[in-house]
């Protein structure tokens, strides 16, 4: 099973640690693409800081993030699971998983990244600022860039297992599973139900996905189909409704009334 997670917009900056080594990251087939994005981001932030702030959607009070991006090649790194934070990662609580669940996290989780394409939780990365909807000089739209190179790496990491896609819509645009993978693709939508009315609420969505992944890692089950995943989640206490399969995969709705 391969679980695709979105990144967090905010990141915890490592205070110390060895500098970035792109060739040490998982999925080495992505190294050339990573080099191009890194070089483009560093050059833009170093040479055109005011323009970079606009591209990155930053206010004047966030200008330190432009400066940080300009020095990414030499910035200290830490494990990705300590750099990415936010609601989903707080709910997932990777650092408090059991030893066995942590081993599963290392092999089953992959985090989508505008800068690195895809990283594993143990990959050492610096804190950076680059949203999935950015468009950079000499590179173009970040999503379009990764759309050209991410697919083979994801398929290789997936192997013959089930793909559980928890990415947000922005990062889902980096790569969409081809039709031939559809029988092994499950997407998850979280619906908040109050007084019989259901809606998608960002906080509930992120927190529930974090708790859901935590439960899967602790349980250790390895379903091979979307139906098998729905059954496992139901056994773990979640309310799950499965939609009809499509050429894009099968959507599972997880219905919650509270976080």
From TrEMBL:
<dbReference type="GO" id="GO:0033194">
    <property type="term" value="P:response to hydroperoxide"/>
</dbReference>
<dbReference type="InterPro" id="IPR005583">
    <property type="entry name" value="YaaA"/>
</dbReference>
<dbReference type="GO" id="GO:0005829">
    <property type="term" value="C:cytosol"/>
</dbReference>
<dbReference type="Pfam" id="PF03883">
    <property type="entry name" value="H2O2_YaaD"/>
</dbReference>
<protein>
    <submittedName>
        <fullName>Peroxide stress protein YaaA</fullName>
    </submittedName>
</protein>
